[in-house]
Amino acid sequence: MGIALTKSLVKEELQRFKAAKEEGNIEDVKAKIMKDMELLNNTTLHIAITGDSGSGKSSLVNALREMTDEEKDSAPTGEIEMTKDKQSYKHPKFPQVTLWDLPGIGTPNFKADEYLKQVNFRQYDFFIIASGERFTENDVKLACEIKEMKKKFYYVRTKMDVSISNNKKRKNFSEEKTLQEIRNYCIQRLRGTGEHSPRVFLISRWHLNNYEFPLLVKALEEDLDALKRHVLIMALPTFSKEVIKKKENAMSDLIWKLSLLSCTVGAIPIPGLSLACDIGILVSTMRKIFNCFGLDAESLRRLGERVGKPVDELKSARKKFQGVDTLTKEFVIDYLQKSVAWITVSTVELVLDFVPVVGSVVGGGASFVTTYYMLKNFLSDAVEDAQNVLAKVCEKKE
């Protein structure tokens, strides 16, 4: 079950534990981690999406929230301008993330020279300027104003699935050539309106794993600070193996801090076991992992509606978490009891052998290793099931 943690790997983590402890007394370590966690929990991400009517910005808002256009609380969509004023939409699973559907620049109520002031540009971390066909002079004016305000912006050409489908009727069709033609057209239009070195991302809200949405994500990661980058990765739809890996790496970093924290708070024996750890940390973190990878029932329901697959079919793809829709404390304790054999036989012995290094905090060392192992084990299972669900989504209908 889960990962194979060798004694050498655990010893490496205990060495890190020792090094962290030696940075200061245990209360100093606890205070630093608590401060880091508070910063992370309070970090928000505000994404502004703007564009002309019919550009697909509202649909993009919904896609980034892992919702369909028809769902309750989704952003209204249509070929006419549906957004009369700026509208905020919180991510349903990650309330730290807010997507803003902004009215198109140059509309009667939002003149280009007053636009940023009217939509309160200061509250957004970055802007996505969307176009369903061609970028306009107003788009370039907006980009220049955003640049003046020292904010980041990204040109995004939406509806690529529609464009590719239409072009398939052409003789000697080549998808690669068509993509390059569309990119060149967008760049030429932007240059013609005064943008000297535009970069355009070609995307489809229906197929985030195709075209250049992964490149857009990479650009966002590079431009955001560490805290906001973490929030972005957690909230991203799990649409590719690359995103699953990003989430795994982000959660691994978090697990290290939480494991260190578990040895500084009151350790609680797990019912039926001789080991102790902080169950509250385990339960809350496992829930976060479960939701982050979209393995909960609500996420799978939304995914099924978006890709046209029955939710039961997606649930069946989960091998490690069969029949699990939400994580209860009882489930977590049962999971721990089933996973604990390796720790009982090997880890406690190793921690005791490590007493000269860990010193008076041997109890904390045991709690640290227990928490670390359990969360890494759970993360491994979640990654495997996320990959299984992704494979099911990618299966072609017979």
UniProtKB/TrEMBL annotation:
GO CC field: membrane
Transmembrane segments: none
Annotated GO MF terms: GTP binding; GTPase activity
Keywords tagged on the record: GTP-binding, Hydrolase, Nucleotide-binding
Region (Disordered): 68-87
Domain of life (superkingdom): Eukaryota
Pfam families per UniProt: IIGP (PF05049)
Domain (IRG-type G) ranges: 43-223
Similarity field: Belongs to the TRAFAC class dynamin-like GTPase superfamily. IRG family.
Protein name: IRG-type G domain-containing protein
Species assigned in the record: Anolis carolinensis (Green anole)
Organism placement in taxonomy: Eukaryota, Metazoa, Chordata, Craniata, Vertebrata
Record gene name: LOC100567925
